[in-house]
Structures are given as C-alpha cells and as structure tokens.
Write a structure and sequence with these properties.
The chain is an alpha+beta fold and 485 residues long. Helices cover 32% and strands 25% of the residues. The strands form three sheets. Strands 10, 11, 12, 13, 14, 15, 16, 17, 18 and 19 form a ten-stranded antiparallel beta sheet that branches.
Amino acid sequence: MAIAFEKLQAGLVQQHRGRSLSDIDAGTIVVIPAITYSPAELIKITGIAYYEERMLFTLLLLRNPDVRVVYVTCLPIDSAIIDYYLSFIAVTRSEVSDRLQLVSVGDARPLSLSQKLLENPDVLDDVGAALGDTEDAYILPFNVTQLERRVAEHLGVPIWGPHPGDVWLGSKSGGRQVARKAGVPVFEGAEDLRSTTEIYDAIAPIKAARPHAEAVVIKLNNGFSGQGNAVVELSGLGSPLEQARTRFCGVGESWSSFAPKIAEEGAIVEELRRSSDLCSPSVQMRIAPGGAFEVVSTHDQILGGPDGQVYLGCRFPAHEDYRLAIQEAAIRITEVLADAGVFGAFGMDFVVVPGEPPYLSEINLRAGGTTHPFLMAKLATAGRYEHATGELIAEGRPRAYVSTDNLKSQDYVGLAPAGVIDAVRACGAGYEHARRSGVSLHLLGPLTSLGKLGLTSIAGNHEEAAALQSEAVAAIDALAARRRD
C-alpha cells in the first residue's frame, strides 16, 4: 500500500534532522537519477538517455560497509563502467554484490526515468525487492516533481530533496523573487511572463533603466543547461517581438516552438550584460532535513553557445577574487530557502561584474553539471571542503579540477568504454589515489553510439588539471586513430 508522501518526508526529517548527506554512514541509497523535464527539452541534449550515469559517484559510498546502493537507470550500464567506478575504492563487483543492486527499465525514449518506472510497475517492484528493509532507505534524485513523489509513495521510501510544491522556488521566476527577499541583486528584468506580448512590454522598463543595454535574454522557467534561453537584440526592436533579431540557444528552436513554451511554463526576461571581464561562477549548497545548511563547493562555469548561455563544463574552485563573495550571497539565498522548508542539494549561478556585488542568475533546485564532478573528486581523494578558503583539501594539499560533459568527436563513435579507460590509464593520466590526482572518466555510456563522454581532471591547480585533460584527450584521439587504421 502506498504511503503518503508527507508522512515519508516527515519521517526523514525526524530521523536525519541536522545531518547532511555526507554524514550518512549507513542505510540504503536508492539512486533514481531521473531528469524530469518535458521531452521537447530532453531531446536537445545529446545522449540524454545516458546522463543518469553522472551520479555513479555514489558507488564510491560503498567504501563504507554499512551502506547499500540501489542504482536505477533507463538503460543497462556497461559492466566495464561499473567495474571502473568500483576501482576507485579498490573493490570488485563480487565483493559488494550483496550491497549493490542495478535495476534497468530498458527504455531509451527521451522521457523521465520516473515516468518509465510508473509505466512499468514490474520494474518498480524489482526496485522495491532490491531495497529489502525500507526503514533506513531514501531516494537520491536528480530533480523532484510529482512523478518522483509517486515513485516514492509506491516504494514507501522518502526523497532526500525538496518537496514538489517547493520546486517553483528554483524556477527562473521563483529564483529572482527569492534573491530579492535575500537582498541579493538580480539584473534589471521581469518574471512570471506568459506570452511574447508580456515579454515585449517588459523590455521597455529594462531599456529605460539601462539605456546602454544591447540585448535581453529570455529564460523559460524550467529550462536547464541554458537550452531554454533566447537572446533578443534591442537595436531596431519593433513589435511584435517575433520580428526581433533573436538567437535561440536550443538546437532547432524557433518562435513557433518557443512561444508555446512561454505560455505553458512561464518565463523571465532580463538585461544581458556583455563584457569580456564578466564571469559566471556557481555555488553548490546542501540543506539538511530540519534546516541546517552548508556550502558544498564553488565553480567557474565553462560556457558556450549564443552569448555564453549554454553550460559546457566547469573549473573548481571558483576564482579567489570572488569565491567568498559568491559563497556569502549563496548563504543568504539558502537561508530564505531553508526558512521555506526546502532541503536537499542544489546550486545557484551568479554573474560577477567587476566592482559590483554578485548578481544571481538562477537557482537550480536539483543536481546539476557541477554536482557530480565535485562529489567524485571529494570521494575519490577522500578530501574535505574548507569553507573559510573554498578549497578541497586532501592529504593536507588543495585539489583543483577541470571538468566537462561534452567531449565529443565523430571519430570516437564505436569506441568501447573499456578501451578508453585502458587508454587513459596507459598514458599515465588516469587517476591515482596515492598522488590524489589524475583523470576520472564519466558519461561513458554514449561513447560507442554517439562519440560523447565526460572527464574530470584532478590536480593541484587548474593548469596541472588542464594538462592532464590534454594528455587524456590525446590518448583517446590516438585510440580512435588506431581503430580507423
């Protein structure tokens, strides 16, 4: 019988009040990395069916003998990938066979994993059977919607994440309102817009307040990785908005597809600052059940696409010039979210303009592109995050990294994960625990069919990390060349 979600969440708060996820040293983690967005948004991401693999860092938690992991995916994960992650804690599959269960739906459609589970009750029952005792189990999600709520109720397991009713606070409109309540500035703009006419009318006040503004950016309330953004040039702007010079960040997007999304989910419009000295860092936070919170990490984002609106990767830590300033702004925003009863891991993006306080760009009330590289680096190095300096310290030394989810080449199509893992190790760039540095590979699932993978290069500083990344990429390129020959 399904257990009411409110009861499940109340039990989690009672049991783990004040404890962060990193404090959990026993129990069952049910990893359901469902990326729950509309199919129209999901198909914009190459290899989206494999993005669930980005949370495989959770396998390193099996280092603790009292932890069990049930990992659920749309597609089966190559056994070489599982073995690779377990190698970071020096165990084999057989050694953790009683504490690691893999469950797959076997469905590659661009739909949420949670929706597929609900459509396949037999598979959902398999997840329940793998759980065993649910008293000390919780679901670790990517994001939380009503679909994840229904999965939780079916399994009788709470979610370590925000209530679906609070997710609006992480929308583009909700984020601007939370920032203002926290006293953190946002760019000139407007939110809760539901039509191109409303957006057009909201541009006039922006132009009045910022007469030198060159462009504005429209952001769909629930867009992610910048794929739901559109840049509108203000020079020669006339009515209707659809006639303006516009660049859409999502592949294949146009006004005919974008305008209905504005009506369906809402959007914001705000000034787009253009300057070579702008930076776009992010802060990752974690709120424990009951309201205690902590800074998890900071990053400089690596961006591409029109006007740098699309997320490609990141560097840890964020630059020291503004690292502590964005931490402070993030803490003020987190206080507002914690007061609203939100808990779980999430991130927020900022824009740093020299000589001005950090501006909030958006709140991502979910896991994100910076979540998995940091937790992989932290768990692999057995490091600790120093709030006072914003550094990851392992064996008394600071660690830095460069990470990307978007290493792509047509030449990589046909390469096997095992071969790429071996090639990176053989060239000497692979991760070595003794020196707490090296390349960690991820998102290996789409490699064979799409020629896409990700990697995180961990070293003493960004320059060393970038050099390791170059060595690893050269080894993969050489492997692809030998295959062609």
